[in-house]
Amino acid sequence: QVQLVESGGGLVQAGDSLRLSCAASGRIFSSYVMGWFRQAPGKEREFVATISWGGGTTTYADFVKGRFTISRDNAKNTGYLQMNSLKLEDTAVYYCAMGSRFSRSGTWYDYWGQGTQVSVSS
Q1: DSSP per position, 52-115
Q2: For residues 95 and 49, what is the distance between their CA atoms, to the nearest angstrom?
Q3: Which of 78, 70, 76, 82 is nearest to 118 (CA)?
Q4: What's the pLDDT at 87?
Q5: Which of these, 81, 96, 79, 83, lies nearest to 30 by C-alpha position?
Q6: What are phi and psi of 63, to 5 degrees?
Q7: Average pLDDT in the 50-63 region?
Q8: Could you give phi then psi for residue 97, rounded to 5 degrees?
Q9: What is the pLDDT of residue 119?
Q10: 93, 94, 97: which is closest to 112 by C-alpha?
Q11: Residue 29: which pLDDT band, with cuts at 50, 70 and 90?
């Protein structure tokens, strides 16, 4: 079993930055792909970013390219999502997930955290 705990969310103003963390326990973190997803009120969950096992390959949703950076530290069993130049439309609950396939689809992710709220105000 894998447990994922996100942290780092909060209320910020447009243009500010936040760094989300995802702490993993229970299994070998480095064996899994890690992804970040988000869900805004009244909307479906959407892909944000994903990173390969060793951290050498990443991919992003178009709406975060150039603003968000995904990374991981396998020695610490922790993943990160650095979010810069936040916009009002980035307001959502952000979830980290771990899976066996490098994919934008949440279907391939087996373990999910409880989510952390990010709220961006004007």
Answers
A1: -TTS--EEE-GGGTTTEEEEEEGGGTEEEEEE-S--GGG-EEEEEEEESS--S-GGGEEEE---
A2: 11
A3: 82
A4: 97
A5: 79
A6: -75, -5
A7: 94
A8: -150, 155
A9: 98
A10: 97
A11: confident
Neighbours of 116 (CB within 10 A): 22
What is the predicted pLDDT for the residue at 72? 96
Spatial CB neighbours of 42, under 8 Å, sequence gap ≥ 6: none
Give the tokens for residue 110.
């087996």
- Residue with structure tokens 């993993």? 24
Residue 4, CA distances (Å) to 32, 49, 82, 121 in order:
12, 16, 18, 27
Does residue 47 have a pLDDT over 80? yes
Task: Please tell me the predicted confidence (pLDDT) of residue 70.
Answer: 98
User: Token pair for residue 68?
Assistant: 């968000």
Joined tokens for residue 72 = 């991981």
